[in-house]
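Quick start: read one record
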Amino acid sequence: MIDPHRARGPISVRHAQMGPDTIKSVRLVSPALTLRVDTPCEPLACDVDRWHIVEHFHVSEPSSFGRYHVSMEHILDVGEDAGSAYINGETHARALEKAWLYGTGGTLGWRGYNYYLVPAELPSGWTSNAEDVVPPEEWRLLKDGTSFEANRRTMPTLPLRSCVEVLWALTRADDVLVQLTTYHLGAVTTSDPDLYPLLFAQALDVARALLPGRDKREQTAMVPDAVARRLPNGLGWLYEIANQRRQTRHAIDKKAEVSLKPDLADAETEAFVSEASVLIQYIVSLKLGVPLVIDEDGTSVVVDIGAGGV
């Protein structure tokens, strides 16, 4: 179980001894963020199902940018299978990434749709000697890709505490809400240019069913002003794009012979991704009972949906 009350200050990696043998552990480390916080606080550590989760923040000046990452460590019992522990850790890391999306408005790593050079990946099972023959700088670019945006964020305070609260709330979510968050996380993390619009469209299909209101007119009227301002094209446009483009839910144009619907234009893609994500995050936050946090140009903004403003 997640236990946010068992919190303490930052720790170093443990090297405890048990007789002559060093205690073994499985450790997972997140990508690093360049982070600035408005209100400094002590980094948090907490325990989640025998995984010790710690946020690490190294900064020279309180108001400047520093290096931030999260680590997860599981101490192995004598005879415990390390491979099983690793698989369990992968599950917890994915759950934390999902919580991160709603606790901070973004993910720990780059959003897939922001890549302009997608990491090169061979088909499953293929291998290559490219790392041995491609110059090192070029290989890093091919392997890691590069993004339109720097992995640089500004947040109100260190984020792990609020993300653990979201993690708690997600454990109480029903199957429909879990499916919505799964589509959403997939949409923002995949780097496949044909896949993320489809996942956003699938997520919108679920979000539409969860929105308060019996029809589109009622739903539009019930969206808080602070959210509606971030949806300049409106719900009707979002629903149309989700169903009337090749990359979204219905690829075939049934009014003609077998042919594909029009492609998303570049401007449509940018607006669709931005506005769909805002609407989905609003629905998820509403259902989970957690604050609505949206990433705006690298800044985590807490949206006051009760007052209709920020």
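The chain has two domains: 1-111+149-172, 174-310.
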